[in-house]
Amino acid sequence: MSFQLGLIGYPIKHSLSPWIHKKFLRASNLEGEYSIIEIDPGLNFADQMEKFKQNRIDGFNVTVPYKQKIISYLDHVDEEAQNIGAVNTVVNRNGKWTGYNTDSIGYVRSLEAKYPEAFTQKSTRILLIGAGGAARGIYYSLVSSGFKQIDIANRTTESAEKIAKHSYVNTNVLTLTSAERRLGRYDIIIQTTSVGMKPNEDRSIISLENLKESSIVSDIIYQPIKTKILSAAESKGASIHFGHTMLLYQAQYAFEIWTNQKMPVNDMDDQLKNILE
Ligand code: ATR
């Protein structure tokens, strides 16, 4: 069989997903295509979906601005995606569409691939910076991975409280300044806000003065590759974890949902880094 795969969103001409999935298709010896289906937000989404459903499609990714909108067109939504409230991967099984969210599990997979020891020590203390959609998903995936101490720091503490409210793990909600003061307590610090994304944005969301050298600092931003917070962490001697690896692992999980094949991504890491640099 030939897999008909694709991506819906807008604008998506520069998306890296076709590059990744075409490599997966080639490496897995599966026949198929991964197409870009740009849907202008000015058009009626319901009409566009109606048209789209008439084509043969085995699976597709969903990106901005449709990750929430797509949900009402699905037959099933996986529990993780329901909790997050956003779908980035849809599989067509015998005409029924099921939605998943592979972003946060992908992120956690990328972290585990690089730092497996952090996943075996359940005493690992994590600080999540940010309380938007990305932070919420990553928080739940970390809880599912068994971590017991995950604190959340955010400019607006109310949003962080909302995430922590439904959780049974130990979560302190912090302001950004109190996180700076307590930074030395954390083994893993994960930056999930948009701060650092704009070119020439010359700051890290928090000061890393109190960072301990044995910590891992991770940023989910993938362009620029090395954000200010990662540069600051590196100069303090800490380990750094790049955002582009999340891109590879969320795609790995999506491809697995569509084809049942888990493709290795290690050899793509440097290639993707070169593309983004
Ligand atoms: P996403 O869904 O991609 O996570 P989002 O829901 O818009 O994006 O969340 C953005 C996150 O970045 C939030 O944690 C936001 O903080 P607030 O909840 O206080 O708004 C954070 N953020 C964005 N710009 C920021 C800035 N200039 N300083 C500090 N935090 C910022």
UniProtKB/TrEMBL annotation:
Similarity annotation: Belongs to the shikimate dehydrogenase family.
Protein name per UniProt: Shikimate dehydrogenase (NADP(+))
Cited Pfam families: SDH_C, Shikimate_DH, Shikimate_dh_N
EC annotation from Swiss-Prot or TrEMBL: 1.1.1.25
One Gene Ontology MF term: shikimate 3-dehydrogenase (NADP+) activity
Shikimate dehydrogenase substrate binding N-terminal domain mapped to chain residues: 7-90
The protein's annotated pathway: Metabolic intermediate biosynthesis; chorismate biosynthesis; chorismate from D-erythrose 4-phosphate and phosphoenolpyruvate: step 4/7
Keywords from the UniProt entry: Amino-acid biosynthesis, Aromatic amino acid biosynthesis, NADP, Oxidoreductase
Catalytic reaction list: shikimate + NADP(+) = 3-dehydroshikimate + NADPH + H(+)
Organism: Virgibacillus alimentarius
Active site positions: K67
Residues annotated for NADP(+) binding in this entry: E79, G130, A131, G132, G133, A134, I220, G243
Function: Involved in the biosynthesis of the chorismate, which leads to the biosynthesis of aromatic amino acids. Catalyzes the reversible NADPH linked reduction of 3-dehydroshikimate (DHSA) to yield shikimate (SA).
